[in-house]
Write a structure and sequence with these properties.
This protein has helices at residues 6-13, 61-74, 79-84, 87-93, 102-122; strands at 26-31, 38-46, 49-58. It has five helices and three strands, in the order αβββαααα. Bound molecules: FE2/S2 (inorganic) cluster (FES).
């Protein structure tokens, strides 16, 4: 079996929603302590809904594919749905990632959460800090 699914290869070769958004409502940047890669996510938000999302990454192919898929999964969604998106759901949508590449998908999930938190902070919107607690660290994966 090929190491990477067709979906991973497709999103890696033709990543969706790459770039930045000027005057984004929320921006989140996270780094992976293990590999040193960086992910930045930009959100445009109207009426509690994500109307545009873009990402930039200094990350590996799996990070690119994960972020590309994640942006497609949250586009047009309510913020609560975006916050509920797990890296596991992203991996499933990609038809899987090799075990040692799972940590790359965590970057996408954390960058989205960080961008939503930035939006809440900028707009004085109260939230439950528990929502933004970091899950199992990337360092827990190989
Ligand atoms: Fe660093 Fe994939 S994000 S190896």
């Amino acid at each position: 079996m090929a190491l990477y699914s067709e979906k991973v290869m497709d999103h890696f070769k033709n990543p969706r929603n790459v770039g930045s958004i000027e005057n984004a409502d929320g921006v989140g940047q996270v780094g992976n302590a293990k590999c040193g890669d960086i992910m930045k996510m930009y959100l445009k938000i109207e009426d509690d809904t994500i109307v545009d999302v873009k990402f930039e990454t200094f990350g590996c192919g799996s990070a690119i594919a994960s972020s590309s898929m994640a942006t497609e999964l949250i586009m047009g969604k309510k913020l609560s749905d975006a916050l509920a998106l797990t890296n596991k759901a992203v991996v499933e949508a990609l038809d899987g990632l090799p075990t040692h590449k799972i940590h790359c998908s965590v970057l996408a999930e954390e960058a989205i959460k960080s961008a939503v938190q930035d939006y809440y902070d900028k707009n004085g919107i109260e939230y439950d800090p528990e929502l933004f607690k970091k899950g199992p660290s990337c360092e827990d994966h190989d």
